[in-house]
């Protein structure tokens, strides 16, 4: 059966914010983050429009100075000293602006010393161009260097399993790193999302409960150079204390897994997410081994990464 998930298998959160009212102005107050969070097509559109509009406005200002001084009509007069040499129409004013902004400097068009307003406009153009370049290019660089694509090379098993390990009933799933570069200070967390009603009668539709995956023992700190099986021991403190094989069929919950770490090559923090619903938890199963010893190295067979097999497991809950 399929139902609405809180977090998709690819880590996307199915939450949309609506009816913000006046709070939407907070997006404009943090404009840089808003631009970084936009999709690539909107970023490219804003990038092109900003530069196009800025170029046209600044070229119009240079053309306006030449028009007000009368340089356009006497541009070819060798005895006349214009504000900007060889600017006699809008295309020539636009070319002068591009040459100045891009520091190309062909030498055919240049500002003369008898134009103080042109010098002021040149200073304003230099400052404005530096600000626009720093803002937009910085935004594009941050967006390109985001470690979201690195999270796609972190792999989670399609299903979680419940079986015995060391004589204890455990909930387990598998994580893996597809790249040779390591995740520094990798840490994993699990949240159980389930609706419940408090003793006071308050209904909590998406109540979040922490699942212990080794906080006290340090097992949540991962050395992720090969696929690892993450284990949650079901005991009296676990929210699955009363879960049995029969009750699993009628339960409705979602386990959200969050894997965080620092990308070794860039030093940026990366987060990968996935989730498991109750129909993706297999009772009485165990993961197939994927590690084998070859000639001088260990080999990981990712074709068996999601594979499980049945093992004898009591159908009763830990409480029973």
UniProtKB/TrEMBL annotation:
This is G protein-activated inward rectifier potassium channel 1. Residues 7-147 form the Potassium channel inwardly rectifying transmembrane domain. GO terms for cellular component: monoatomic ion channel complex; plasma membrane. InterPro entries: Ig_E-set, IRK_C, K_chnl_inward-rec_Kir, K_chnl_inward-rec_Kir3.1, K_chnl_inward-rec_Kir_cyto, Kir_TM. The record marks 133 as: Role in the control of polyamine-mediated channel gating and in the blocking by intracellular magnesium. Belongs to the inward rectifier-type potassium channel (TC 1.A.2.1) family. KCNJ3 subfamily. It is a multi-pass membrane protein. GO terms for biological process: potassium ion import across plasma membrane; regulation of monoatomic ion transmembrane transport. It is found in: Membrane. One of its GO terms (molecular function) is G-protein activated inward rectifier potassium channel activity. It catalyses: K(+)(in) = K(+)(out). The chain crosses the membrane at residues 44-65, 119-142. Residues 154-319 form the Inward rectifier potassium channel C-terminal domain. Keywords: Ion channel, Ion transport, Membrane, Potassium, Potassium transport, Transmembrane, Transmembrane helix, Transport, Voltage-gated channel. Its main location: membrane.
